[in-house]
Write a structure and sequence with these properties.
Largest sheet: 11 strands, mixed
Strand content: 15-25%
CATH architecture of the largest domain: 3-Layer(aba) Sandwich
Number of domains: 2
Helix content: 40-55%
Shape: globular
Number of helices: 13
CATH topology of the largest domain: Rossmann fold
Length: 410
């Protein structure tokens, strides 16, 4: 094995910025599948690095944050790349980034839609796309959805629907409600049962509205190809979904011969690093409070009312960095992480106390002291700011360096 050459002519350029855990998940999956890829940043894109790649893979994460990182020059570079024959594969937030919404790349002539929010887990989809794209993909397959958005009306002749949602499968959740467990023993058409729960949660929860909704789109921008997937085909270990991902990459790259497969070399024990130990201790604290547990080996399952996605990203990014070939970790970063987690423990205890009295929302205003701590750590909007954003920015930089040092080619 040799150290990965980031300038090699690999088929896939994985856009890293503002992807957090979703970028990490994509790197893991592409490496596990033995695919050829390079990690690129906004600065790389602005400097013309996309030219040596056939596919730009944009993972999940807030599209608006990705747009801020790219800037006008970077966004135009992506549009020019695709228009002149490159290919774009966007997943979840990366799919939304391809749309013609405010701040979007306008690669597909459609906007975001509205529908059931806050759903996650395994779901069946039915492929409906043309054989030239979906020929080697089964008509029905199991995929994972991780809190995706929705596509708007797909009546444009230039956009093909490749797949639609089917029925949720065991493990599928809306908010913190396990759909299979909640509906077990209840009437098949138990709308009244859902309505009662929806009134308590103040949001739609019944997943029946998803069935038949488009979840995978394909189109052209100039002479380039675009695939937008609301579902996470790159979820590690999702056999049929991973197969579909490989098929789509082959299609988008015009069946070009792959470059050198990339593997990740793990060099350290997680607990040997101060970041790894902090992550483990913080996870145990939340588990003991009954606020979360591991849903799989990279994602938490948490009670509604806390910043579960942010805590998942924090714990996973710190834990993964601890296992990789990381440079020397600055003492100031360890202190910053320790201070954040001490304050977060206080916040979690306050939120747990409120949960025990009734339902709370992670973003809506609450009593004064709790709200003050929330805003200090995360800001007061859905997109996290505050101390969390400052810490994650430093951790993200360290993780990127560590991943690049740990990527090897055969």
């Amino acid at each position: 094995m040799t150290t990965h050459d980031s300038k090699a002519d690999q088929r896939i350029a994985l856009f890293w910025d503002e992807s957090n855990i979703w970028g990490l998940m994509a790197v893991r999956s592409l490496a596990d599948l033995g695919l050829d890829f390079t990690i690129v940043t906004s600065a790389d894109i602005r400097s013309g690095r996309l030219a040596s790649h056939r596919v730009l893979f944009v993972p999940g994460g807030w599209a608006s944050e990705k747009r801020l990182k790219l800037g006008d020059e970077g966004a135009q570079a992506v549009r020019s790349y695709v228009k002149n024959g490159g290919a774009y594969l966007g997943v979840c937030g990366g799919a939304g980034f391809a749309l013609s919404t405010t701040g979007g790349l306008r690669l597909l002539p459609m906007e975001r839609g509205r529908g059931l929010s806050n759903f996650s887990g395994p779901i069946e989809i039915t492929t409906t796309g043309p054989e030239r794209v979906c020929g080697d993909i089964p008509g029905r397959l199991t995929v994972s959805a991780w809190w995706p958005g929705h596509f708007g009306d797909c009546d444009c002749k230039d956009v093909n629907i490749l797949a639609r949602y089917g029925k949720p499968l065991p493990g599928f959740m809306v908010a913190d409600v396990d759909v299979e467990k909640f509906t077990s023993g209840k009437p098949v058409n138990g709308n009244a049962v859902w309505k009662e729960l929806e009134q308590r949660y103040c949001m739609k929860l019944n997943p029946a509205s998803l069935e038949g909704e488009p979840c995978l789109l394909e189109g052209k921008f100039g002479v380039g190809k675009v695939i937008a997937s609301a579902v996470h085909l790159e979820t590690p270990g999702d056999g049929s979904a991973n197969h579909a991902l490989v098929c789509f990459i082959d299609y988008l790259s015009d069946r070009k011969k792959p470059g050198s497969a990339v593997r990740l070399a793990y060099t350290a024990d997680k607990e040997s690093s101060p970041l790894g130990r902090l992550a483990t201790d913080f996870y145990m604290f939340g588990e003991e409070l009954g606020l979360w547990s591991w849903r799989n080996d990279w994602l938490l399952k948490w009670r509604r009312g806390i910043r579960g996605m942010e805590y998942t990203s924090l714990i996973s990014v710190m834990g993964e960095t601890a296992r990789l070939d990381a440079p020397e970790i600055p003492d100031s970063l360890v202190v910053q992480a320790d201070d954040f987690m001490a304050r977060a423990r206080e916040l979690l205890e306050l939120e747990k106390s409120m949960m025990d009295q009734g339902t709370i929302h992670p973003y809506k205003p609450v009593r004064h002291h709790l709200q003050m701590v929330r805003e200090e750590l995360f800001g007061d909007k859905r997109i996290a700011r505050g101390a969390y954003k400052k810490l994650m920015s430093r951790l993200d930089e360290l993780l990127l360096v560590s991943l690049r040092r740990s990527m090897q080619t055969a």
